[in-house]
Design brief:
Number of helices: 8
Number of strands: 8
Strand content: 15-25%
Strand order of the largest sheet: 1-4-3-2-5-6-8-7
Helix content: 25-40%
CATH superfamily of the domain at 13-109: Vaccinia Virus protein VP39
CATH class of the domain at 13-109: Alpha Beta
Distance between the termini: 30 Å
Order of helices and strands: HEHEHEHEHEHEHEHE
Bound molecules: S-adenosylmethionine
Structural class: alpha/beta
Radius of gyration: 17 Å
CATH topology of the domain at 13-109: Rossmann fold
Length: about 220
Amino acid sequence: MRLRNVKGSQERILDNKYAIQTDGQDGRDYRGLWRENYFRNDHPIHIEVGMGKGRFITEMARLHPQVNYIGIEKYSSVLVRALDKRETLEGDNLLFLRMDAEDIDKYFAPGEIQWIYLNFSDPWPKDRHAKRRLTSVQFLERYGRILSPEGGIQFKTDNRPLFDFSLEQLPLAGWSLEECSYDLHKDGPAPDNVMTEYEEKFYRQGNPICRLVARR
Ligand code: SAM
């Protein structure tokens, strides 16, 4: 994603009750207490890691008011775009965290999360950067630490080398593959699928979209 520094984005995140800028301790106080102290309900929590401009997670929050959603994004200037979309949502079931997903287990307690979505994650094509891929063993282990026993991940991408890499990483991290498609939209837009910004673009270009579902 091309990044443009958006002036005032950090301030806007600090001022918005639906976003947390996790620098320092901010957000860690909720670890293990997100349901109780932030959402104030006992609904499951689903996360999207690297939510970008937030189309997918905002639509999911609209469709599933009985689920608490948390979108994680590394860059403030991208997260503020998601805040613009968030304004169209009436519910209180969507929060954004500005943080690097490397720290995910510092902000969530063991078993606190029921599901994780990874959509069109950055491919990091060089071998020496493989650990940075959000579906590497290193990240799967982090997710494993915060997911409930029945929890899992859904990953979509149009990047076949990244998808194949992810399929290889799952067994290495002790995960099992539950669903796998190399062309999710081969018969037209898949039912019960919410398109992300990237997915819409690549689908229109005719790129096959891959999707997997896996559990620990
Ligand atoms: N998920 C969106 C979509 O499908 O349209 C955005 C995809 S974009 C290619 C990947 C996003 O993940 C970027 O916004 C990037 O800043 C974010 N990202 C990459 N690595 C991250 C990390 N370690 N922690 C949090 N966000 C990350």
